[in-house]
Specification:
- This protein is an alpha/beta fold.
- It is elongated, with a radius of gyration of 25 Å.
- It folds into two domains: 125 residues, Response regulator (Rossmann fold, 3-Layer(aba) Sandwich), CATH 3.40.50.2300; 38 residues, no CATH class.
- The protein has six helices and seven strands; from the N terminus they run E-H-E-H-E-H-E-H-E-H-E-E-H.
- Helix 2 packs parallel to helix 3.
- The strands form two sheets. It has a five-stranded parallel sheet with strand order 2-1-3-4-5, sandwiched between helices. It has a two-stranded antiparallel ribbon with strand order 6-7.
Length: 190
């Protein structure tokens, strides 16, 4: 079972974060709240947070400034911004500096927000899965290359036009199970 999604709500007006928590109460999220970018940053240093939803207009540090810090220090945390004013400059700054996933106008539709969080988390999960698969592929390719260098008489690695690995032993057909037995036997001798 996976851990629940942790959402950090940042707004200098506590009634806004409380309203968002009430609106999203049916979602399987754990909510943390902060009333400033500085307070939210302190929370991020001590807690794992999956998603940050920040107000844009806050005293001291704007949402775009705060999310740009989050982007640099916690790059895997999904960043979203809420704004009471539809300023194109604010939206562009949030996207460019904070790398925000989504820009919402207040009051935002809670269903839209919940769906956006779910989609962002799924996108992040798929990216992480792709990273793991790529690392696994690179390790296997390196192992196969090292094995091929040592046991070139047993195994020759070729690729087809699409880059897929073609395994053959000379020009003869070789049963895959027999190939695995030969590889395992050769590796055990090392």
């Amino acid at each position: 079972m996976s851990a629940p999604t942790v959402v950090l709500l940042v707004d200098d007006e506590p009634f806004v974060t409380e309203a968002l928590k009430r609106a999203l109460r049916r979602e399987p999220y754990v909510f943390l709240t902060a009333t400033s970018g500085e307070e939210a940053h302190d929370i991020l240093k001590g807690e794992h947070v999956d998603v940050v939803i920040s107000d844009e207009q806050m005293p001291g540090m704007s949402g775009a400034e705060f999310l740009s810090i989050v982007r640099r220090q916690f790059p895997r945390t999904i960043r979203m911004i809420l704004s009471g004013q539809a300023s194109l400059d604010a939206a562009v700054r949030a996207i460019n500096e904070g790398g925000v996933h989504r820009f919402f106008l207040k009051p935002c539709n809670p269903t839209d927000l919940a769906i956006t969080i779910r989609h962002a988390m799924e996108h992040q999960r798929l990216q992480e899965q792709s990273r793991r698969l790529l690392i696994g592929f690179q390790r296997q390719a390196a192992l196969l290359a090292r094995f091929n260098d040592r046991e070139s008489a047993l195994l020759r690695v070729d690729t087809d036009e699409q880059g897929a690995v073609v395994v053959n032993d000379s020009d003869e057909e070789l049963d895959v199970n027999e190939l695995l037995i030969q590889i395992e036997s050769a590796m055990l001798k090392r």
